[in-house]
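Exercise 7. Predict the joint structure of the components listed below.
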Amino acid sequence: MIRDITLGQYYPGGSWIHKLDPRVKIMATILYVIALFIVKDFIGFAIAVAGLAAVILISRVPFSFIVRGLKPVFLIIAFTFIINMFMIKGEVLVSFWVLTITKEGLRKAVFMAVRLVLLIIGSSLLTLTTKPISLTDGIESLLSPFKRFGLPAHELAMMMTIALRFIPTLLEETDKIMKAQQARGADFESGNIVRRAKALIPILVPLFISAFRIAQELAMAMEARCYGGNQKRTRMNGMKLKMRDLGASILFVVFLALIVLQRIFF
Amino acid sequence: MTDFIRVENLVFEYEKEEDGQRFRAIDDISFTVEKGSFTAIIGQNGSGKSTLAKNLNGLLVPTAGKVFVDGLDTAAAENIWEVRQRVAMVFQNPDNQIVSSIVEDDVAFGPENLGIDPQIIRERVDEALTGVDMYDFRKKAPHMLSGGQKQRIAIAGAVAMEPECIVFDEPTAMLDPKGRQEVLSIIHRLNQKGITAVLITHFMEEAAQADKIIVMDQGVLKMDGTPDEIFKQVDTLKALSLGVPPAVELAIELRKQGIDVPEGILNTDDMVRFLCQLK
Amino acid sequence: MSIEVRNLTHIYNEGLPHESTALEDVSFRAEDGELVGIIGHTGSGKSTLVQHLNGLLKPKSGQIIVGDVDITAEGVVMREIRKRIGLVFQYPEYQLFEETVAKDVAFGPANLELSQEEIDLRVREAIELVGLDYDKVKNLSPFDLSGGQKRRAAIAGVIAMKPEVLILDEPTAGLNPKAHADILNMIQTIHRRENNIIFLVSHNMNDIARMSDRILVMNHGKLAMQGTPEAVFSRDRELKEMGLALPDSMEIVSRLRAGGMEIDGTCMTIRAAAEEIAKVLRA
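Solution:
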């Protein structure tokens, strides 16, 4: 049951977006987020929405999946909306008790909320269309120029790969430990915060110990398979930029240009 | 027949965490493993068999004595990658030796570490997976597989490094009967193809299928011989808290009943065949 | 005291695309003092079944009656159930967490809200019952014990709750032959001392044959067979079809019979098999 959780919510598919090089997608997502902060009015958002809609259509990921990413942050969006709505001074629209809603406030609230929504949908698209392992490869590749400054890019990527690999295993382990302690009468549901926190010890201690044991055994297995850090490692599934990556990059640059031009001239 | 692995007066000690005292896990043992053979190492917990396994591929180096793999001294730092490429290892816990979240990616891990050309890695991975009957699962996530399937992936990962020898450290201890059968039949298959196999186990039925059995107890090599020679010494085995395979036990009981069962009948198949032609 | 299961059905992921029937209409009864073996292929529902017995899972339909309490009814307090039914999972040593063995074994009884006196008494009893030396281990960290000892300490943690029904899921998994035999002896000792109902889930047919008064055979979620070891293991062809093995001695005898030898009796031990085979050969 818990095993069904796919981290990052990858939605399998063969669309052009799925097939793009992960490095292109990562860079595009980062620049997209920056672009969202360049935008100063709703026309700019309209351009962003248009671009986003195009990507969603091409990716063929169902809309329900995309919207799912908004659920956990719904409270933050609502909170942002409300704060902005009540806090900004200006032309008063409505007033009751101590609270005042101004035109500027309303506008700001909607603006901020829309930006948040677009930000989350955009980032979700990255994880929906890119396998976790491709993401790690992409990040490693993008960070590797910084190796000369001492950044352990390969090691970071390896850590991420292993973490991804073991999250389902550790979740299963947690489930087993919980059931075993419940069978001994442990109660994780009732009581105040302090009580419930204490009740987590019988789960966390065995889990940590398991995690250490796994780490030790895995390290030994990796050594036995001649893992020695980064020296002259090759990759079976190497990343190669293709024509579609070039095409996608050009289209994205056009998108960025539109955003910037809109900001300056319109 | 050449000696692929030579263990000479091996002593291995390690420091105990609590009191800093040194504990001698292996006490002066010597034996050889012939190229292409199937050797089983049996012993109770605390016999030192797992420690011995790790000395065979340089994961541990001797405190005293020497281990030679294909002529290479495992203690020499410059040999370490060569040794580990020649002697691959499969561990007991199916989960904790799988590195990647995609099967074929994990099998590629070893060759990738050796810096092999990606195209050749691709070929090796496909071949290795086919050899363990797991080719159809190459794109799957390991955590969805059964224990036996995971162990087969681990074996494929070892095979992909094209080692001359594979050491299996209690590979079936955590598997159900079906998984155990799958793994054992693959070990046999690989041995028949020419890979030297060293199987560490505490299951007598598994050891019975080897060319040679080494029995360890508390760090000391107690017996070294063919299954026939070893299983004859029932009393010694019992004293070491080790049993004999069911067919051998039956042979002993039948002899008590006056039925003359010849030496060499070590597994159920042979026993059934023998008795049926007797009647 | 008895435990009765009536028409138990459990469905995983109901309504979702990967819905699957884990248990289908399972019914059986166990009486005080019985040791019931549960066997079945991996995925046959054994684990699901035992998790229902102590209330960790709730069935879609059916009832489980322990003594005179229907534990599947509404409003049943789970803590009351867990007082009476103990479940030891596979590799129970992975659940040890306390600073000392005594404290870890005390976890269960403490959750039952017993007096400190009673808890201390039960902890000592339980540790002794699993064959560990109380004075030696009580202040040791559980993680300083050997593998076999850790497992015993974990089992002591459940025994200390003095359950009327004790369920053990593959208690000998991963153990070497000596520890394996020791754990089985320990189970028999516990059974004799407490005279409770014990359910033993195992893949090892030799163990099941040796220890069980009765056997339940699970197959694809259904209870395919039940009966004494003699009765169940004599149905060797059906068991093979279900992908199950026989105890070693019976496996040999079954193949000899297939090869035309007419061997009498069930031969649940190698010695018994040798005697019967010798009879046939002398004739």
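Discussion. Chain C has one domain: 2-229.
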